[in-house]
Each structure stands twice: as C-alpha cells, then as structure tokens.
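Write out the bound-state structure for flavin-adenine dinucleotide.
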Amino acid sequence: MDTRELVARLQSVLAEEHVVHLPEDLIVFERDASIDAQLPAAVVFPRTTAEVSEVLALASELKVPVVPKGAGTGLSGGAVPEENGILLSVSRMRDILEIDVENRTALVEPGVVNLELSSEVKHLGLYYAPDPSSQYACTLGGNVAENSGGAHCLRYGCTINHVLGLEVVFPGGEVAWVGGKAPDAPGYDLMSAIIGSEGTMGVVTKILVKLLPVPEAVETYLAIFENVPDACRAVSSIIGNGIIPAALEIMDQVVTKAIEEAHQVGYPADAGGVLIIEIDGMQEELDEQRDSILSLCQEAGAREIRVAQTAAERETVWKGRKGAIGALGRLAPNYYIQDCVVPRTKLPEIMGFVEDVAARYDIIIANVFHAGDGNLHPNLLFDVRDGDQVQRVIAAGEEIIRACIDAGGSLSGEHGIGTEKQEYMDWLYGEEDLEAMRKLKRAFDPDWLFNPSKVFPTGEGPHAAKIHIGKAPVHATAAAVWK
Amino acid sequence: MLTETLHSQLAEIVSQEAITSDSPTVDGKRPALGVAPRSVAELAAVVAELHAAETATIPFGGGTMLDLGAPPTAAEVALGTGSLNAISGYEPADLIVTAEAGVTVAVLQATLREHDQTLPLEVPCPDRATIGGAVAANVHGPLRYTFGTAKDLVMGMQFIQGDGTLVKSGGEVVKNVAGFGLHKLQVGALGTLGVIATATFKVYPLPRADQSLIFAFEDSDAAFTAAAAVRAHQPAAALVGDAVAQQCLFGAVRGAHVLLVRFMGAQGAVARQVRAATAVGTEAGARATEVFGETESATLWQLCVDLGSDSAPTNVLFKASAVPSEMRHVYADLLRAAEPLDEHAGFVADPLNGSLKCGIHAADAQPQDSSVDADTLARHLRFLQHARAVSQEHGGSLVLQRGTVALKAAFDVWGPSPQGLQFMQNLKQAFDPHRILNPGRFVAGI
Ligand SMILES: Cc1cc2nc3c(=O)[nH]c(=O)nc-3n(C[C@H](O)[C@H](O)[C@H](O)COP(=O)(O)OP(=O)(O)OC[C@H]3O[C@@H](n4cnc5c(N)ncnc54)[C@H](O)[C@@H]3O)c2cc1C
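---
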C-alpha cells in the first residue's frame, strides 16, 4: 500500500491534523515503554466511535495493519507500530461519560487515565481498584488490553475482575457492546476474551467499570529483612495462614537504594529486602490480621517493622514503590523488566535462583515485585552499547523464565506478551494451544490485521536479539548468537 | 447401524464398561450411547472419534443442568465426565486447586474445607453437579457480588476442542496474562466450544465469621430500599424473596417479602455489620429480624441456590436480569403479572447483582407428566413473554432454564440474538467445525 494514498484516504475520514504522517513527526510514535521500536506509516487520532469505525473499515479494505495505542506505557511492545501500518491513538477519547453512584459504575472513554478516574470519584467515597504503578499515566483502554494488575490486585483482582462491559470496534468497523450494566447477557463471554488480548482483536472505545467504596481503614507496614528470600518466606506464610492483605510488595536493596536516591522516601539503605504490607477493610478486620501478620514476619526473620503513622506517610511509602522502575533509570541506561509468575510457595526458592543468575552472569538484577501474587519483576540492567552485556542479559533472562515455567509458573502476570515475550510462548504452550489462540483471534480478525506481529512466536529467536535504538539495530552480533 | 459401528470404534478407545446404553434425556431426546472416558487422553480420543463420525454429542457431568438451553437438534452420544474425578493438584498454601471436570462440587469443597478453604462458587445440587458442568453452565449465586463468577475464579483449563485436540489455556497461578483467555471463553459456553477436561481455580480462605439476617417486609419496595441501604455495610450477598419462595425455603412465610443479607469476614467486623444492618432494616420498616450464625447461614444460602433446580419437568424455571438498581421494578412487575397465573410462582431476586430467578409450578400437572395442557402452556408463554419484555426494558435479558419441549418450541430459550453474534458463530465454526457439541442448544442456534 502506497503511504501517500493511505494518508489521503485517512484524511478523507479524519481532519487533516488528526492524521500524522511526516517522517519527522512519526519518530515520537515509534515506541512504547518496552525496548522495541518501529515507525508506522501514519498515526491517527479519532475522537468518536464512529471515526474509529471508519478508520477500521478503511484499514480492512486496504489490508493495512492497525495498532491501537493508549499512553504507550506498555512494557511488552504492544503499542509499538507495525511497519507500514496505522497507529490508532485513543488520546483524544478521554471523557468520563457517566458516573452511576447507585450502581457504582463508571462509563469512560479508553483514553481516560487510570488515576484520573479514581480522583474523579473520590468525593463520592468510591475508587477504581486496579492500580498499576503507572496509573498516573496509563489509560484504561491500555489496562483493558493488557488485563493490567497492580499492587492491590492481591486482594481486589486485576482489570478483568472490574470491567462490566466494553464497546468495541472490531476489525472491519463493526461496533458492538459486550457485557453491560445488567449481568448475564446470553451468548459467549466475548468481553472476557477481549480483555487481555493486547489490542489484537479490535479497538475498545468505551469501558464500563465497577467502582468500589474506599475502605474505612488502611494500615501500611514496612517489614525489613536481611534478604529477599526471607521476605518471600514471610509472604508465603501470611497467605498460607489464610490472610489476604490488600498488598504485599517486595523490593530488594538495589531498588530501595535507587528509590532513596531519587525520592528520599525513607527506605532503609542497608536492608537486603523490604516488604510493604498493606491491610485494608473494616477496622475489626485489620485488628484481627495485624498481630498475626507481624508475628509471621518476625518468624521469617524481619529485623524491624515500621508502621506508616499517617496518611501522608502511607503515601510516601507508595510513592517510593510506584516510582521504583523510573528510579532504576539512574543505575543503567537500559533495563529489561520481566514479569513471570510462580506459585507463591515457590517464591523464596525462585528469588534465590534469581540472585544466583545475577552473580553467574555478572549483571545487576533489581527486584521490585507483587510478591503476594507470586508475580516477579526482575529488572535486568544493562547498557545496550555493550554487546557482550546484552548477550549475558538475554541468557540470564532466559534462565529465569525457564526456571519460573519449570516451577509451574507463567511467562507474564500483567505486562503482556507483545513482542517482548513472544518467542517464549512456545516454552509455556504447545503448538496446538497456540493454534487455538490464533483461532480465537481470527474469529474477530480474519485478515490478521490487528497487532499482527505480536504475541505469537515468529520462530526468529529470542526477542532481546531484536533490541533497537530508534531505527538502527545496535548489536547485530547479539542477533547472530541466536541463529 | 451407525450406533454399532460407533460402538465398536469407541470400544477401541475406552473399556467396554465405559460404554453404556444408559444416558440422560435432553429435552425429550435420548442419546443411544453413553460413553464415560476414564482419562483426559481417553476423553480427547473419544471426541476425535465423534468428530470424525460427525456424531451429535451431549457432554454432561452430574446431569443437573441438562434442562438449560434450547432442545438439541440431535443427540446421539452422551459423553459423561463422571469418571474423570481426580483432584489433580492442590497446594493449599498457594490457594490454587486443579480438578478434573467430573469432580463434584461437594467433593471439591470438602477437600478444600479440610484446609479451611473454599471455592466461593455457589452451585445447585453440589452432591451431583460437577465442576466442569458448573463452569460450562456458568452457574453462580448471590455471593458473586463479592467473589465474582466462574470467569473470575477459573485461572486455567484443559479442554478438548470439537475435533478432539486437547488445549491448555491459562495456568496454575493466581495471576496470568500469557496468551488469550480461551478458558474464560469456555465459561458459560455450555460445552458448545469444547469439552472441559480439567479446571484450575483460585480458592479463598474460609471466612472467620459468616452470619445472615432475615428481614420481613410487607412491601417489596421497602425490601429493596433496605437492600440498597445495607449495601453501605458491605454485605457479601443479599436476596429478596416472595412468599412462595419462603415456603419452599423455610416451610413458613415470614412476610410478603423477605430480605436475606449475608456478612462474611472477621468476627468483630461481622458483628458490627450485623448490628448496623439490623438498624437499617428496622428503619426501612422490617417487621421481624432474625440472625443466623455460621453453619445455619451456609445452609440457608445453599437452599436459596438450590431453589427450583430439582423440581418436576413440567415446571418452568427462568432467570432474568436487569440493571441492579432497577431490579426492584422487575420484581414488583413480575409478581403482579404472576397473580393471574393461578398456580404457584416463586421469586427470588438478587438486588446487588441485578438478577432474578422464578420458578412456576404447574398446578394440575402430576410429577410423572412431561407436558402440560394447552391452556397452561399458553399462560406460561404469555407470562414469559411479558417477563422478557420487562427485563429488557430495564436493561437486562431473560433465559428460560427449564420448560417442557412444547414451551421451548414456542419460546426462544435465549431470546433475541446478542450483539456480536457473528463473532460467536465464527468461534463455533473454529472450535467445533463439525458442530458435534450440543448442536443447537446455545444462543441463536449455535
Ligand atoms: C513505570 C511503569 C510501571 C508499570 N507498572 C505496572 C503495574 O504495576 N501493573 C501492570 O499491569 N502494568 C504496569 N505497567 C505496564 C503498563 O503501564 C500497562 O500495561 C498499561 O495498562 C498500559 O497502558 P497504556 O495506556 O500505556 O497502553 P499502551 O502501552 O499504549 O498499549 C498497551 C496495549 O494495549 C493496546 N491498546 C491500548 N489502547 C487500546 C484500546 N483502546 N483498544 C484496544 N487495544 C488498546 C495496545 O495495542 C497495546 O497492545 C507499568 C509500566 C511502567 C512504564
């Protein structure tokens, strides 16, 4: 498809200024928060469902690939454009359309930022529960596409547990509602299939979510351990004792140090592992849980447990945690953040293994993760200009993924597969499993136009071998290793 | 003839004892053969064979939900999962359990209870109902307000596609976005997209306290107003029931309407919630209040879930939904409309989730009857049509869960075609190309 012709057709359905196509203007759209990059043919900014529908009808007619994009905070490459494709940004679709206090729901456009919604309903005593650490920037459309989680998903669940309905524009331009305010609409649960489909099955144009009442009581603790495996043991035993706190988050010393340098939130500088524990709910519930949790931490070897005394102190604890990944930027030019999940009882063992991997490959791995869910985030730090280091990072990352899968775990807890993990999908699933997933996609996208080169293995070898800076591949040598 | 060939082919896959001529009837159709594979591999091989022979297949577990759905266009083989009854993975400290499809809900719950855990999915007839059937039929009760439905609890699955290939989706961890949610799609698909072989659930610690309250009201609006007010105290579940429902539940009628509210959680918290709710109920004009503790509470709610599930074939059972805040109107309207029915119609409505269950007992029918007279049929039909219209007016839908073959012929069990039907048809074509699985039982002829 000739780009000029495509642009002209797009400009026939959208105003000229909402179709970006000059090469110099496209550069800012070539990436998301992962390490891949690709220039699209054009970026479009529809405002309405009808406009999205027209763009998609056009894309189908011309057989041009489409990538939907929210805020571009995705860590797995989901919003990285396709070559010669259309990047469809929902950034102009950002109205909160309805707050229904009686039914505790909100109807929003996909470009609404996660935290904005909670701020908007705070005065009603309500909030939107899923809270990715990127919540100040990421969009609800992106959250739906990734089935995003967050620190408080331990108790409250991920995006899929909080969405009641979606308006979707499907490939070809057909608009349909799946789900809704009333439960149990007859038919297959298309909504649950679309949530977490990483923008491969259509564009979400409206989202109906549940709102929850703000809990009456919240307490936040910092349990300080000599090392991460001890902190993990505390997590396993809290859950094993039938207590599900609101959040259980672990940070290792690399992370707490980086956060301290960036934000000065008062994390101990000399501790090997810090566990954030938050309990919320009714006051009596907290009273019942507090002592058990604290003594389980002590049994696991906590040398100190600090209490956030005020709301402001609590906020500071979370500011540090949510700013963790950003703070890592101070330590190395690049990071590769993984997202494996293991059964919670395997946490201590697997975290010991991660330490071992870091030592063997002589790289720094920073850990900050949703321990309560068994969802790891090893951050492998590197400098992309150092080809040898890149190779070590790739190999180390693969060992970790293997170990997590062998432990009965999964490749991704919340960041999605995208391009970043696609070559590992066949480590977790057999060809027939993957083929069944392809069938699901084809039911919605028969021409395979939506995010076409993501999620499934290409057979080209591990992802990290494709690391680019802008358009220039920087380490052809690394790629060669994987042939 | 076909049966004989098929019989011998199946006999090469499963043992002789696994093949019977004894199979359940679905809407008057009785499959000539019953087959009950003993392993997931056998199950897959059997489905592959049925696919090759293009044989209409009715997968079933405990047979408790076979009334759900439109009458199948054909039913040649009944594929029982009852012999797949192993709990294949359970690590209590991980709060994750994996079981084969034929494990009954009661067995699973008993296993979990040994470790003070539970699967918060309310299923009618748990002694017979299997987890595979419960997931396929997407059954749930009022606790979904707190714990969601099967789609929120199923973390992974193995299922057999219509062509016999075994597929794994999701995993055995509590959080997982690797790959698409095929296992979520199987929830509520009534076995028309595949036969569930195993399912992995996220489970919960048993609550330390579990108490329920019953308020009696003369006026249904007051009951719903009380339910709305009680919501501020975070109930785990609530139901409003009419006199007929009460008669079935308690063998006694406490008032024209009752509001049942359940609280689960920490001891002290539940005690405060019960006090607060009592005050709310009294303020809303409740006549009587009773508190049920621990085991009584669980029993009470199981009775509510069971309501109507094991009654005579001539009875009518349907589920309607509405935007939750509008359920009061649906409930009141349907109760009024049921008055001229001249037979027992019982209603329970879930004010927090926006669903309603209604059972109509055909007054003149004998237990052994499988049909009712033309007048009764016409009355039922008129009532159902009205009920569907009312549900739709309030944003919801209506599904007929049980009715005679004649009623199902006159009244579309699932109602009008849902949005996105074309995609549903594409899915059916992709996952069961020979349309052997429950042909015709699902939405719009799927
Ligand atoms: C510092 C940092 C911390 C993070 N912490 C967390 C965390 O705690 N938990 C977590 O789960 N994630 C986390 N993430 C990852 C990321 O923020 C989430 O995946 C988020 O949901 C992406 O939203 P977005 O708007 O940026 O989407 P994008 O990155 O723009 O897109 C993500 C995917 O969604 C698709 N998409 C976007 N909008 C639509 C739409 N309207 N319709 C259809 N498809 C669409 C895209 O095609 C793409 O595949 C973090 C990221 C960063 C940078």
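---
Chain A has a mean pLDDT of 93.
The first strand of chain A starts at residue 19 and ends at 20.
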